[in-house]
Design a protein that fits this description.
alpha/beta; 5-stranded parallel beta sheet; 4-stranded mixed beta sheet; 9 strands; 22% strand
Length: 260
């Protein structure tokens, strides 16, 4: 990836290789970041890069190879919700730096839950955590995620919600591509931070959430100010206050001397 946002890469198989480019305007619509070794399918056209006198493929569309109908459904829903404006920055709610409590929507047996709780205990042990259990994979999991989200909105006991799970295949993460769940996230009264999968995994929930984190641990780190930073801020304020009081007393003593 270039600083401009364009992607430059080489397509290879057992017998040949060809250079390729995908410009930023096209790359932003892909939905994942390709890495070395990935098998992909792309649509594009052959162009000539005159500076080097080399032919290349100018990619217009890209998808993971072999995903077929699932990935097609993902792209179709992504396009539909994008056109409806659900991804617009103006619809995003502000994530509070000092929440009174943080909610976590995930499976009680998920490794992601342990990662989030560990990160929050290390970073902000003073902030209470409320867990809203839900399946994150398999039949009925999307409905359970929606029910957990609805329960959190009904109780209104937290200021921020983390929607998290670990990495997996597109099939494993499919619950987070549910259209009804996406609309519930968009309509939530409580800001939602998604931390689904690894950094290169993207789901519909990521696009519609108020903030997307690359991992569950990163999601936990983004939703509150570290306790150590708050203590440092209080210490600095205390020092500034003590200095201000000392200067004020000096001025008042000088007034007493003048009056005397």
């Amino acid at each position: 990836p270039a600083a401009s946002g364009h992607w430059y890469f080489t397509l290879k198989d057992n017998g040949a290789s060809v250079r390729a480019v995908m410009f930023r305007s096209r790359a932003t619509a892909v939905g994942f970041i390709p890495k070395s070794g990935d098998q992909i399918e792309l649509k594009g056209r052959v162009t000539l890069y005159e500076a080097r006198g080399e032919y290349q493929i100018q990619a217009e569309q890209m998808r993971r190879a072999g995903l077929g109908s699932l990935f097609e459904a993902f792209l179709a829903l992504k396009s539909k919700l994008h056109e409806e404006g659900l991804f617009e920055p103006s619809n995003k709610r502000e994530i509070l730096a000092h929440p009174r409590a943080i909610g976590v929507i995930t499976s009680l047996s998920a490794a992601a839950l342990r990662d989030v709780l560990t990160a929050l205990e290390r970073r902000a042990p003073h902030v209470p955590v409320v867990i809203y259990p839900a399946m994150v994979q398999g039949a009925g999991s999307a409905l359970q995620l929606r029910q957990a989200l609805a329960l959190a909105n009904e109780r209104q006991e937290v200021d921020t919600l983390l929607l998290v799970r670990g990495g997996g295949s597109i099939e494993d993460l499919w619950s987070f591509n549910d259209e009804a769940l996406a609309r519930d996230i968009s309509a939530s009264l409580i800001p939602v931070v998604s931390g689904v999968g690894h950094e290169t995994d993207f789901t519909i929930a990521d696009f519609v959430a108020d903030l997307r984190a690359p991992t569950p641990t990163a999601a936990a780190e983004l939703v509150c100010t570290a306790r150590s930073a708050l203590i440092d801020r209080v210490s600095r304020a205390n020092g500034q206050l003590a200095l201000a009081i000392h200067r004020k007393l000096d001025r008042l003593l000088q007034r007493v001397d003048r009056v005397s």
